[in-house]
Design a protein that fits this description.
heterodimer, A: alpha/beta, Rossmann fold, four-stranded parallel β-sheet, 8 helices, globular, B: alpha/beta
Chain lengths: 197, 553
C-alpha cells in the first residue's frame, strides 16, 4: 500500500452526533496516528471518548498554527468549522452522514445530559431543515476545494453493514478496515440514540 | 466611519507581486502589505472576469447572480451573447450604498454596462460594447472628466500585442495606465465620496499575452528560452505601483484601502476542445445537408477557427479583434466554419460553451429551445453517463487522461438561477490546461494552447489596509464573495442576509471586531426558496447549540 503523503491532513468531519468519534476510533484501530488531546473525556454520550483536539474549536478565531501538527495525522473537525480550513493544505476528508432526525434527537439527549436547557425557539423539525441547508452548503464548499479529496460514509449504513460501508476507506486512505480489530469498533450496542429514542 | 477605496487589479496573482517585492520592487504595494492584512483571494467557478466581478459586487455566488461566464445563451436559440448588468441578478454594492445615502464613485469595473444611476458617478468597464457611447453616469461626467485629464477617455486598449515588435503594445499600456489613474484621481477629487473604486483591467490582458516573458521555459519561447525577458512586464507593474501609491496618498491616511484581483494567472500550455470530443463520441450530431457536410469535411482537413486566427495574424488584422469580435464577427464566423448552426439539435443531448472550466450543458426540454432530454430520471441517467465518459476522456494521440474530476452543478452553486448553470463541469487534469473556443474551434480534442501564454487561476490577491484593519497579518480562506459584506461592515452598514459571502472579521482590528449587522432581504436575487445558505439568525441558533454541546470554543 502507498502511504499517505506526509504533508496531508486526514480530517474526520460531519455534524456533531453523526458518528465522527466512531470514525476516529475506526481509523485509530486501522493504525493511523491521531491528533487528539483527550481534554474532553468520555461521558455517557461518548463512552469511548470524543477524540477531539481543543484548538480546533477556536479555528474561527483565526488560530490555525496547530495545522502543522496535524500533517500526516487524523484530526476531527466538525462540519461547521470545516470552511475555516485554509486552502493551502492537502486534505483527505472522511465526511460522516447520518439521518438528520437522529442527529437532532441525539443532540437533544446530550443537551439534557449536560443540564443545558435549549433556549432557542427552533424546533427539531426546523433544526433538521437548517442542518440540511448547512450540509448542502458544506458539500458545495468541499466540491470547490482543489486540495480536498473526500469520501462520504453513511452512519446508518455503517451500523447495518460495517465492512461494506467502510470499504471506500481502503483505497482512499490505503488502510485495511476489514480486520476484526477494526470491525469490533463498530458495535451496534453503541448505536444509542435513535430518532425519538 | 472611514471611507473605503477599492483598487481592482484584474487577473493578478499575489505570488507574482511578492516575488518582485523580494527583489526590492513595488515599494508602495509592499508597504500596504507590510502595514495591512494580505492573502490570496479565491475567485468564482469559473475564475473568469464576468462571473467573478459580478460575484464581487453582489457578494453572491453565480447561482444567485445568474452570471456563469462572459456569455449566456439566448433563451430562444443556441447563440451566445455577452452578459451585462441586465442579465445579472442581485444589487451591486454601490447600489446598496447609494440607497443608504452614501456617495459612491465607480470607474472601469467590468460587467457594469448598461449603467444605472448611482448616488455619485459610474463609468462602466470591460464588456461595455466596443462602440457604446452611453457608458457613464451622470450625463456630464465624460465631458468633465476629459476636460480635466486633457485627453479622450477610452475603455479598450489601443494596441494589440505582437511578439516580434512588442514595444508599441507596452508603450500604449503605460499611456492607458496614466489615463486611468488620472480618471480615478478625478473622481476622487470631484466627488465627496464614501466609497470609491477603480479597476486596472490591462493587468489581465498583459499577463495573458506575455506570461511567457516571465517564464523562460514556456513553450511559446521560440529561440530565446532561458533568457530573462521580464523587464517590460516588471516596468509596467513598477509604473502601476507608483500609480497606486499616488492614489492611496490622495485618498489619505484615514481611508480604508482594499487592493484585490478577481482571479489569478499562470502559464497556459494546452487546451481541450470539448465539442470536438462530443462530436467524436456521437453526443453531438450534425445536420445531413450538403453545406454542413462540406463544412465538416473542411473541418476534418483543418479549416477551423484556430486556422482563422493564424490568418488574421498573418494579415495583421488582429488589432482590436479580441474585443470587437465579441460583438460583431460571431455570426459571420458561424456561417463560415463548422458551428452550432450545423448541429442537429433534435438528435444532440449535450454541448459545451466556455473556456476556463469545462462546462457541459444537457440539451434539456423546457430550457433549451430544441431540448430533447426530460428533466427527471432521463436527465439524471444521462448526466451520470456523460460524467463517466468525461472522467475517462483521453488525448487520442497519447492516451493521457484529461479530466481530474467532474462536478455537477449543485455541487458548486446554489440559488434561484441554478438552472442556468452548466449541468456538468469537467475539471482538467492539469492546471495549465484550458478549453478551446466555441463552437468547434479546433478539430483536435487536445493540443497546445495558442494566442495567450497565460490563463486564469482561481487564486487572486487581497490586501486590506487602513485605520480599521490589522497590520502585518496574513489571511487565509478569503473569497471574492466576502468582499461586499466586508466593505459594508467597514462602512458600518448592515449586510443583506442573502449575500453568500461573510465579512472577513479576522482582518479588522479591535475597533471593528464587533458583530456585523445583518438585515433581512425580502426580494433581491429572485426565488429565495432555493437559497441553501442559512441566515445569520439561524446561524446564531446553531452555533449557540453547538457551543452548549461543547463542540465550539
Amino acid at each position: 500500500m502507498t502511504p499517505i503523503p506526509k504533508d496531508t491532513i486526514i480530517v474526520v468531519s460531519g455534524l456533531p452526533r453523526s458518528g465522527t468519534s466512531l470514525m476516529m476510533q475506526v481509523l485509530e484501530k486501522a493504525g493511523l496516528p491521531l491528533l487528539t488531546d483527550q481534554l474532553r473525556t468520555a461521558d455517557l454520550d461518548n463512552q469511548r471518548g470524543y477524540y477531539e483536539y481543543e484548538p480546533v474549536k477556536f479555528m474561527k478565531a483565526g488560530d490555525l498554527t496547530w495545522l502543522e501538527l496535524a500533517k500526516g495525522k487524523v484530526v476531527k473537525i466538525i462540519s461547521h468549522l470545516l470552511a475555516y480550513l485554509p486552502s493551502s493544505y492537502p486534505v483527505k476528508l472522511v465526511f460522516m452522514l447520518r439521518d438528520l432526525s437522529e442527529v437532532v434527537a441525539s443532540q437533544d439527549h446530550m443537551l439534557k445530559n449536560r443540564g443545558e436547557v435549549e433556549k432557542t425557539t427552533v424546533g427539531d423539525g426546523e433544526l433538521v431543515r437548517i442542518f440540511e441547508k448547512h450540509l448542502q452548503d458544506i458539500k458545495s464548499w468541499i466540491a470547490q476545494q482543489p486540495k480536498i479529496e473526500v469520501v462520504f460514509i453513511d452512519y446508518n449504513y455503517l451500523m447495518q453493514d460495517p465492512s461494506t460501508a467502510l470499504a471506500p476507506l481502503e483505497g482512499f486512505l490505503e488502510i485495511n478496515v476489514t480486520t476484526p480489530d477494526v470491525l469490533s469498533v463498530v458495535d451496534p450496542k453503541y448505536y444509542r440514540q435513535r430518532s425519538g429514542g | 466611519m472611514s471611507k473605503v477605496f477599492v483598487i481592482g487589479l484584474d487577473g493578478v496573482p499575489l505570488d507574482l507581486l511578492e516575488n518582485w517585492m523580494k527583489q526590492g520592487h513595488l515599494p508602495r504595494l509592499k508597504s500596504l502589505i507590510d502595514q495591512g492584512v494580505t492573502g490570496k483571494l479565491k475567485s468564482t467557478v469559473p475564475h473568469t472576469s464576468g462571473p467573478a466581478w459580478s460575484s464581487f459586487m453582489t457578494g453572491k455566488n453565480p447561482g444567485k447572480t445568474g452570471v456563469y461566464d462572459f456569455l449566456y445563451r439566448d433563451k430562444n436559440s443556441y447563440t451566445f451573447l455577452p452578459n451585462n448588468t441586465h442579465t445579472r441578478a442581485g444589487k451591486a454594492i454601490w447600489d446598496i450604498l447609494s440607497e443608504e445615502g452614501l456617495k459612491v464613485g465607480v470607474m472601469n469595473v467590468p460587467m457594469t454596462y448598461p449603467v444605472s444611476p448611482v448616488n455619485g458617478a459610474l463609468m462602466s468597464g470591460f464588456l461595455t460594447p466596443y462602440y457604446a457611447k452611453d457608458f457613464y453616469y451622470p450625463e456630464d461626467l465624460l465631458e468633465r472628466l476629459e476636460a480635466k485629464i486633457g485627453q479622450k477617455y477610452y475603455i479598450y486598449p489601443l494596441e494589440t500585442f505582437n511578439d516580434k515588435n512588442p514595444q508599441p503594445y507596452f508603450d500604449a499600456s503605460h499611456k492607458m495606465l496614466d489615463m486611468q489613474t488620472a480618471s480615478i484621481s478625478f473622481l476622487m477629487e470631484h466627488l465627496d465620496w464614501d466609497f470609491l473604486m477603480g479597476v486596472f483591467f490591462d493587468t489581465d490582458r498583459i499577463l495573458h499575452q506575455v506570461w511567457h516573458y516571465l517564464d523562460p521555459t514556456h513553450p511559446m519561447r521560440k529561440g530565446d528560452a532561458g533568457e530573462d525577458k521580464s523587464g517590460p512586464v516588471l516596468a509596467y507593474f513598477e509604473h502601476l505601483d507608483s500609480c497606486i501609491g499616488q492614489l492611496v496618498d490622495q485618498a489619505g491616511p484615514d481611508t480604508n484601502i482594499v487592493v484585490m484581483s478577481d482571479h489569478g494567472m499562470g502559464a497556459a500550455h494546452n487546451m481541450i476542445t470539448l465539442n470536438t470530443w462530443l462530436l467524436n463520441h456521437q453526443l453531438v450530431k450534425l445536420k445531413g445537408n450538403l453545406l454542413t457536410q462540406l463544412k465538416r469535411l473542411l473541418f476534418r482537413l483543418g479549416f477551423t477557427l484556430r486556422t482563422s486566427h493564424r490568418l488574421l495574424a498573418l494579415l495583421k488584422l488582429e488589432k482590436h479583434a479580441e474585443y470587437k469580435l465579441l460583438y460583431s464577427a460571431d455570426k459571420i464566423l458561424k456561417k463560415v466554419f463548422l458551428s452550432f448552426n450545423d448541429v442537429d439539435w433534435m438528435r444532440t443531448s449535450v454541448y459545451s460553451v466556455g473556456r476556463d472550466i469545462g462546462p457541459l450543458f444537457i440539451n434539456m426540454k423546457g430550457r433549451e429551445p430544441q431540448g430533447i432530454v426530460d428533466r427527471g430520471e432521463e436527465y439524471t441517467r444521462l448526466r451520470e453517463s456523460i460524467a463517466e465518459a468525461a472522467r475517462n476522456m483521453t488525448d487520442p494521440k497519447t492516451g493521457k487522461r484529461l479530466a481530474r474530476r467532474v462536478l455537477f452543478r449543485e455541487d458548486v452553486y446554489n440559488g434561484a438561477y441554478l438552472d442556468l448553470a452548466p449541468d456538468l463541469i469537467v475539471e482538467p487534469s492539469d492546471e495549465d490546461v484550458f478549453y478551446g473556443l466555441s463552437d468547434f474551434g479546433s478539430n483536435q480534442v487536445y493540443e497546445p494552447f495558442y494566442r495567450y501564454s497565460g490563463m486564469h487561476r482561481a487564486l487572486g490577491m487581497l490586501v486590506l489596509h487602513g485605520p480599521d484593519f490589522k497590520k502585518g497579518e496574513r489571511i487565509e480562506g478569503a473569497e471574492i464573495i466576502d468582499l461586499a459584506p466586508t466593505i459594508l461592515h467597514a462602512l458600518d452598514r448592515a449586510i443583506p442576509d442573502d449575500m453568500d459571502g461573510r465579512p472577513l472579521l479576522f482582518a479588522f482590528n479591535s475597533m471593528k471586531t464587533s458583530s456585523p449587522k445583518y438585515r433581512q432581504v425580502e426580494k433581491d436575487s429572485g426565488d429565495k426558496t432555493q437559497d441553501a445558505r442559512y441566515s445569520p439568525s439561524e446561524s446564531y441558533d446553531i452555533e449557540d447549540r453547538l457551543r452548549k454541546l461543547g463542540y465550539l470554543g
